[in-house]
Amino acid sequence: MDEQRFSLESDSKVDAGKKPVRLLVVDDNPNNLLITSKLSQYLGYDAETTNNGVDALSLLKDKPFDIVLMDVRMAPMNGIEAAQKIRSGEAGDHNAKAYIIAVTAHALQGDKEKCLSSGMDDYLSKPLTLDRLQDSLNRARSRLSLD
């Protein structure tokens, strides 16, 4: 892990030519929260973090975010419920169209469809890889016309 941490800190892929993106990472597992935010930073994103759906909605009400990386299984509010509330405008009209990416260990048949039908835009199964995260964030940037 120390070698990977050194690599992530010393060899960042920040692209100064891209528009800044407001990114929120939501996960109740502190290790997953750290890994996802560090991978996002390595890819050039300045991520804010929180550890549950309730706090995510509170943060989203206060400021706009372009992309939300949302764990699915959390308490007291899971990612599915949080995504539905975001889409309904409960996180502010400015976030109702945020690109929501499910990040979950749920990889059974039907899990992806359940996430997408709740209003999430994309689905990543854990463990995350840098390439899959980058591909998903690139899809988000393209959809939001942020490139």
From TrEMBL:
Coiled coil: none annotated. GO terms for biological process: phosphorelay signal transduction system. It comes from the Bacteria. Keywords: Phosphoprotein, Two-component regulatory system. SUPFAM superfamilies: CheY-like (SSF52172). PROSITE patterns: RESPONSE_REGULATORY (PS50110). Residues 22-141 form the Response regulatory domain. Gene3D superfamilies: 3.40.50.2300. The modification 4-aspartylphosphate is found at residue 71. The keyword Nucleotide-binding does not apply. This is Response regulator.
